[in-house]
Amino acid sequence: AGAETVKRAVQLDAASRFQESLVCYQEGIDLLLQAVKATTDEAKKHHYRQKISEFTFLLDGKYHKQIRIEENATGFGYEKLFHEYLTEMVSEVWVEDPYIRQVHQASRYLLYNFLRFCEMLVKGPCKVKTIHLLTSYDKVSVS
């Protein structure tokens, strides 16, 4: 399944559908990593590791870590989720959230969460000078 997912990623990459291809690469690599852990056959482990290495090379540094958080799970604060990325070298952060400006009750919590995230950045070991928030545009009605 992992190899098939990565083949799909290559097709998407060739079609310039980069965001979708990145997700497929990541899922394929994750599936292959699970296969490495599950098998006791050393030849298969070697084959899976070789494929993982090849696919990671194809990503050319675009691979990112995916963390799956189950519904109602606890213990996933911002510090725990982002600590490995927030080194002293980080000076600028980009956040993309198209829903933060939506007019409904949940948007209040989104803004609150964004505020907590920003506070964590400022208090952390990183030297963040700029935080960018990319969101959706307001729809303007013309009469």
UniProtKB/TrEMBL annotation:
Residues 2-54 form the MIT domain. Residues 75-139 form the MITD1 C-terminal phospholipase D-like domain. GO terms for biological process: midbody abscission. One of its GO terms (cellular component) is midbody. Signal peptide: none annotated. It comes from the Eukaryota. This is MITD1 protein. The gene is Mitd1.
